[in-house]
């Protein structure tokens, strides 16, 4: 997928899901806007974007190509519910979740440090 196709894919996901900005999409994907921008630049966001939109009821073919109906039919949704998630997508999801956990742990450590500083300056 070239960069133009990646941008088109992101725009279709935003359109279908009702996100007005890349930042809103990044928040829904639980990643930073910078992480999404990097994935857009290096064309590594396709699987996670497609999965997100399909979970919201989008037709995977429309999300990928812009062709066909936007919304998946009830039969398509039933079929997708019974399918296993591809191994590559699971690996991506685990990777993203591990990064998110590391980011949150870093924030907690920063907050704990600030709390510790406040306690020591108060003399408690």
What does this structure look like?
With 124 residues, the chain is mostly helical. Helices cover 74% and strands 0% of the residues. The protein is built from 7 helices and no strands.
Quick tags:
single chain, 124 residues, mainly alpha, 434 Repressor (Amino-terminal Domain), 2 domains, 7 helices, 0% strand, elongated
SSE layout and pairing:
Blueprint: H1 3-17, H2 22-28, H3 33-41, H4 46-55, H5 60-65, H6 74-82, H7 87-122
Helix pairs in contact: 1-4, 2-3
CATH architecture of the largest domain: Orthogonal Bundle
Please trace the helix and strand order, writing H or E for each element. Answer: HHHHHHH
Gyration radius, rounded: 19 Å
How far apart the termini lie comes to: 58 Å
Biggest sheet details: none
Residue stretches low in confidence (pLDDT < 50, at least 5 long) are none
Q: What is the beta-strand fraction?
A: under 5%
Going by CATH, the homologous superfamily of the largest domain would be lambda repressor-like DNA-binding domains
- How many structural domains does the protein architecture include? 2
The overall pLDDT average reads 80
- What's the overall geometry? elongated
Count of beta strands: 0
- What is the SS-derived class? mainly alpha
CATH topology of the largest domain: 434 Repressor (Amino-terminal Domain)
Identify the CATH class of the largest domain.
Mainly Alpha
Task: Please estimate the helix content.
Answer: over 70%
Count, helices:
7
């Amino acid at each position: 997928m070239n960069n133009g196709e990646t941008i088109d894919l992101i725009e279709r996901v935003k359109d279908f899901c009702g996100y007005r900005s890349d930042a809103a999409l990044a928040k829904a994907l639980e990643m930073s806007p910078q992480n999404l921008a990097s994935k857009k630049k290096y064309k590594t966001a396709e699987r996670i974007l497609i999965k997100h939109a399909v979970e919201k009821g989008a037709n995977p073919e429309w999300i990928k190509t812009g062709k066909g109906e936007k919304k998946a039919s009830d039969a398509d949704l039933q079929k997708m519910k019974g399918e296993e998630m591809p191994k590559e997508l699971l690996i991506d999801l685990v990777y993203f979740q591990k990064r998110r956990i590391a980011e949150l742990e870093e924030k907690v450590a920063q907050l704990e440090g600030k709390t510790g500083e406040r306690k020591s300056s108060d003399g408690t």
